[in-house]
Specification:
The protein is of the alpha+beta class. A four-stranded antiparallel beta sheet has the order 1-2-3-4. The mean pLDDT is 85.
Length: 65
């Protein structure tokens, strides 16, 4: 399934709480995009992976479990 790419120019990115203490080896996500969760690597901030919100929620639940 393809989702239209959201405009991420104004996205407020936040780092994973499991990242390595502020170095540049971080996973970042942006909130506020209905139905999708943009995810990016802090070392390559120019590109993002757009994940369906339900798939992201399942991933997070699995990682926490």
């Amino acid at each position: 399934m393809r989702f239209p790419s959201p405009d991420l120019s104004g996205a407020a990115w936040r780092k994973s709480s499991y990242s390595d203490g502020g170095q540049n080896n971080c996973v970042e996500v942006a909130d506020g995009f209905p139905g999708v969760v943009p995810v990016r690597d802090s070392k390559a901030p120019g590109s993002a992976l757009i994940v369906p919100a339900d798939a992201w929620a399942a991933f997070v639940a699995y990682v926490k479990g």
